[in-house]
Amino acid sequence: MWDDAELIEIIETFPAVADEALAAIQQDVANPLNLASFAAAAAFLGTDAAKQCIIQLQALDLLDAFGEALRARGVEIDGTAAGGGRINIEGMHHFLERAKTFRCRIEVDQRFAGSGCLVGPGLVLTAWHVVRRDGPGVVENPPPRVTVTLADGTTHDAAIPPSFESPCGADEWKSIAPRQDADVLNCHDVALLTLRRPAARHLGFVRMPPTAPPATSRMKLYLLDFPAGVDEGLGDGKTWKIRGVSVRLRHDVKTAGGSSGGACFNERFEFFGLHQGKAGEGKYGRFVPAYLFLDAVAGLIQNDISPIELWHLDGQSDRLVIGRDLFVRSVAEASKDITRVRGIRVKRTDSDDSGLGFSYRILDELLLRQGGAHLAVRVPVGDAVPDLMVDLTQRVEAAGLAVVEAPSPGGVDPVQAAPEAAARDRAARLALAVNEGAAKLGRTVWFFFDGPSGRMSDPTRLHLEGFVAACLTLPRIRLVIAGLETVRLAGLEFAAPDVTGGEGPAGLVVDYLTGFTRADLQDCLTRAAAELTQAVDPIVIGSQADIALQGLVQFNQRYATKDLGTVVDRLQPYLALLRTQGETP
Questions:
Q1: Which helix (H) or strand (E) covers residue 439, if one does?
Q2: DSSP label at 146?
Q3: Could you read off the pLDDT of 378-394 as tens digits, one per residue?
Q4: Integer Cα distance of 98 and 519 in angstroms
């Protein structure tokens, strides 16, 4: 009935409780056995005290009674506890829905090799040994071709070497479990793969906790894996210590070849490790706790989700982002839960409107990367919109957010109030309703107000001004105001997203559309070369920039936005070459 290894671990972990249980099952014994007596016998026999306890209790036919006595004292055994466990049904439902989309299969040289999970729109976490042909210390030349099959059935190439890697131990490569921490010193068996394209934006991904959850003995463990390449659902088990080893734990989920790299989650459905392999002989698996590597990959993951640099949209080389670093950085800052930057105000310096629409495409790309946590709602502003508040409500509800307007926050009677006060009050009530609806879903709504003409009626202007003023104080709403340069809006105007501090009045970063420079073009090409080939040649990049700019008119070293189409077309042969170089072993 009882697992000996499990009981030995309980005795070592809870010696006082074990002594109580021993006393309880020997109430009629004149000289009851206790852990001290077992320790003395073990010292004489050259064995372990806890193990000697189990041997003696088996001989006395008291093992079942001992187990029940432990359980009566609240110690969990074999996944149960006094009073029984409880599962968060809503949390489990939400987790299972997401888990269907973020787990994935890893193939090496067109053969199934293991499991993994999406941790960003273009990042996959798996075990290091899954993506290797040879063990630690061996340079693989040529490197293997690693592909990832996502939940939607699509297969995508991953860049090798990984963005981050920590090998397994030398003996672990030979399927020999470590006996002490020194056997796997600085060897965490983890690889963070970068997909050639951020192909998983529509699928969602595992949200890494800000700090790694504890991974100790007797914790609930859920495993997402593909044992033997087969989808057998969610693995459900328990964690246990490995004697003499603290940097690996064992678990009792049934696994098979191909489970390696599977993501492990605790009872709160937080990621807390990766399945690695078998824990020696027997039924137990072995996993690597997340606290060993989470800090090392956190920055890479955050930059994939909310990048401060972007050179293209949707993985397409004909959708280049040139000269828009301030906009990208500002979106990243405004995406934070606590920040004074509540969005961006995009202003033109000439009559070219193309930068306004492209701003929305950039925003959409950046929010898609955030895995559904942020929602973009585009709202046109101008003479063609008879009632901005009605139009805005319809657009929010069409995006899947329920809007139930709250009572007036200022106690304004819309019938008796002056038109200006009534309009601002109506806008504030709608902003509160949107914020409440977003909070219920755990999302942040971004309103992109698009007004290239700048023409609007007085009621529309009042509604816009009132809505923006209210949104600046609400935690679940962010704003992008594109155009509308003549409208006076509430809030501060920041020149950059990183000089605002953590406390104080909220506002918008102002991003002026002033064309682009040669340096902007070089930055874009440098990022492209680094991502596609992991190598950057400044001389070649400078030469390609000059070719792209040849014959174009510049003023004060700036080129007009209207020339970007020509520049992008001229760069296509070079970008195609970079892709070919990156895909060639």
A1: helix 419-441
A2: E
A3: 998 877 778 899 999 99
A4: 41
